[in-house]
Amino acid sequence: MDKKMHDKGLEVRKAVLGEAYVNNALKNVDDFNRPFQEMLNEYCWGTVWGREELPRKTRSMLNIAMIAILNRQHEFRAHLKGALTNGVTREEIREILMQVAIYGGMPAAVDSFRIAREVFSEIDGKA
Known about the structure:
Blueprint: H1 3-17, H2 19-26, H3 34-48, H4 56-70, H5 73-85, H6 90-104, H7 106-123
Domain Carboxymuconolactone decarboxylase-like: 36-118
GO molecular function, one term: peroxiredoxin activity
Protein name: 4-carboxymuconolactone decarboxylase
């Protein structure tokens, strides 16, 4: 493991998803999933998210679309909050999900719009 890249990734991961979310994920680390968490921090968050060629906002927009199409609702919820942290507006999220509907299918968009509304309600204190 590249410790420097791992630490950079952990920093980026916390900045995007929030320290509480990441700490919660890390408190469940054990001998079985530790190598996966290390890989996640080093490669996903350090090697890729840590690159300068795309701004975090753009990476978040891409993630929203891809995760919505993959129908990974838990990850979608987390990355939706991260996207808002990275400056993606609700209007931009709506447009991304409209694109998802056309290229990824209506069922993926229906679920994603529902989750987005739930997240917005939570953030607005209406949940």
